[in-house]
Amino acid sequence: MYLCGLLEPVPCGLSDTMLSKSMQKYSIYALLRNALNFHENWHRAWRSPAPKPEYDVIIVGGGGHGLATAYYLAKEHGITNIAVLEKGWIGGGNTGRNTTIIRSNYLWDESAAMYEKSLQLFEGLSQELNFNIMFSQRGVMNLAHSLSDMRELKRRVNAIRLNGIDSEILTTIQIKELLPIINTSPQSRYPILGASLQKRAGIARHDAVAWGYARGADSHGVDIIQNCEVTGMLRKGGCITGVETTKGIIQAPKIGIVAAGHTSVLAAMAGIRLPLNSYPLQAMVSEPIKPIHPCVVMSNAVHVYVSQSDKGEMVLGAGIDGYHSYTQRGSFHVVEGQLGALCELFPIFSRLRLVRQWGGIVDISPDASPILSKTPIKGFYINGGWGTGGFKATPGSGWSFAHTIARDEPHELNAPFTLDRFVSGALIDEHGAAAVAH
Amino acid sequence: MFLINCPYCGPREESEFHPAGEAHLKRPANPEKLSDIEWADYLFMRQNTKGILLERWVHRHGCRRWFNVARDTRTNKVLHVYQMGDSPPTQLKHIKP
Ligand SMILES: Cc1cc2nc3c(=O)[nH]c(=O)nc-3n(C[C@H](O)[C@H](O)[C@H](O)COP(=O)(O)OP(=O)(O)OC[C@H]3O[C@@H](n4cnc5c(N)ncnc54)[C@H](O)[C@@H]3O)c2cc1C
Ligand SMILES: [Zn+2]
After folding, report:
1. How many CA atoms lie within 13 A of A299 on its CB side?
2. Which of A44, A65, A308, B45 could pair with A293 as two cysteines, CB 3.0-4.6 Å apart?
3. d(Cα B57, Cα B71) in Å, to the nearest integer?
């Protein structure tokens, strides 16, 4: 249906290759123009090509990190003959299952540099990708419930500020002013002694991050191939040469594994053992309500983290289950414990109804820090171990991993996060930052 | 939530138990002779099996005894429970992971 012939009908059968060359710019004018023809002529945001027999680089895993890697490989390093292979749909893994907390208040210098780079990239990402990722810097608060919590928090805030990252301490009264619904009674089971606050931290729309990077990568010519599971690795001597997939053999001299919970499974196909264990991590959302929760609250001690989405739902994260699993669901008692603590902290939530609950599979490393690394096999690179907290790192991870693949050496940002650290002992112990999933 | 059949107490809810990871890891016989790479392998590297995992559990809120479990990590189905020191059941090896 076209408006009385006023507008030229655009042929619907635009071929896939044509689309990539002419990415539609999203703007208020494009919105108005498309409104005139009932929004029937928007182009697809990315193509769905059949895989070619050979690429320069193959990225396994179409989550945010994999798509960001492909985007920066094309944009920063001029490598565009790339395939991103995704066994399901893009963003359907942990990228589309997480509670979207973005912050850079990490203790150690190595992590602070990585997460701060990511936060800075997030700050310009909607413009960079011409895609609204709904990044909202509403502040993240970490609660202290005991004297030792409070001491630890102060130490962290000092270390973080020394790295030039914004962070401050709030008193109980300041917390209550910012967040009137929180229970600050000294009689509470989890009394609140104070908190740290990073004002530049916040949340973003998770699938928009995946879609924005996908659209950006596609416009540079990257092939995003969904419903294509990698089932084997092809090697010749000490070099990687390609992958076996459900859509046939695809060859490439460089392969990057960016598969979160399935990192070990893919590395094992190439005979590489990793220091990772995969666990279920759960989250849930409530029915939508009026705005009552202006920032993000995390409590490591009681395993609660909560924010309110723009739709009004309360987004609630739980802790991990203790056992290994690939089921994408966790146990009920974990949810029960988390909701009990939540209602103690926010008594008003006791009448909220939950509408959805789900699980993702997170890959946890011994020091709770990621692995962005070359491997003993030439051309075979690994980006994993982000565990419960990698959404916030999506841009920086893709950016530095692209460098690692393009130059065959790590960028100084990810040089501390190699596999070698488990041999040398130079671990980056962020268990304190990741005592709770986030 | 799943049930685990404690070899000493019978079937109980998972929340009474605590998992402790991959079973049958061999302590190095001559620790002083180990290279750094061998140490890293023993301390950190894990199979992280997708399929039938042999793992250790302890009945923490029950008899407090340790035992081994064969569980399919794709479904959480507990396939077999056996005592510490026993070798894994051979028939499980034929189940395709
Ligand atoms: C419940 C929950 C809450 C979380 N909350 C936060 C938070 O608040 N803040 C934060 O920073 N982080 C959080 N995280 C962690 C965060 O989600 C992840 O670290 C991050 O999204 C990982 O991104 P990724 O692109 O590496 O992985 P994914 O998005 O999981 O992408 C990996 C992709 O690889 C694909 N794949 C796997 N095997 C194969 C194969 N054989 N062939 C082809 N493709 C394959 C998968 O289908 C998947 O799409 C949370 C995670 C969960 C589960
Ligand atoms: Zn028992």
Report:
1. 24
2. A308
3. 11
Residues A122-172 pLDDT 10s: 999 999 999 999 999 999 999 999 999 999 999 999 999 999 999 999 999
User: With 90 as the cut, is the pLDDT of residue A21 above it?
Assistant: no
Q: How far apart are CA A215 and CA A212, in angstroms?
A: 5
Q: In what order do the strands lie in the sheet with A57-60?
A: A223-225, A82-85, A57-60, A254-257, A380-384, A371-374
Domain B3-94: what homologous superfamily?
Answer: Folate-binding superfamily (3.30.2270.10)
Nearest ligand (C-alpha, residue B59): 2
A420 contacts A376 by C-beta, under 8 angstroms: no
| Separation of alpha carbons A129 and A39, rounded Å | 21
A387's tokens:
């565990």
Q: How far is CA A35 from CA A28, A430, B81, in A?
A: 10, 49, 63
Q: Which residue of A has its CA nearest to B3?
A: A331
For residue B81, which ligand has an atom nearest its CA?
2
DSSP state of A21: H
Check pocket membership of A103 for ligand 1, CB cut-off 6 A: no
Using CA atoms, how far apart are residues A358 and A260, in angstroms rounded to an integer?
Answer: 17
Token pair belonging to A361: 């599979």
Mean pLDDT value across residues B47-61 = 96
Instruction: Flag if B46 and A274 touch (Cβ within 8 Å).
Output: yes
User: Buried (b) or exposed (e) across A320-331, using 16+ Cβ within 10 A?
Assistant: bbbbbbbebebb
Q: Where are the beta strands (DSSP E) in A217-324?
A: 223-225, 230-236, 239-245, 248-251, 254-257, 277-286, 296-299, 304-308, 314-320
Neighbours of A112 (CB within 10 A): 20
Strand partners, A57: A82, A254
Whether residue A374 contacts residue A267, with contact meaning beta carbons closer than 8 Å, is answered with no
| Residues of chain B positioned with their CB less than 8 A from the CB of A326 | 50, 73-74
Using an 8 Å Cβ cutoff, are A382 and A263 in contact? Answer: yes
Find out whether the beta carbon of A303 lies less than 6 Å from any atom of ligand 1: no
With a 6 Å cutoff on the Cβ, whether A245 touches ligand 1 is no
| Token pair recorded at residue A357 | 């609950």
Answer yes or no: do B1 and A331 touch at CB < 8 A. Answer: yes
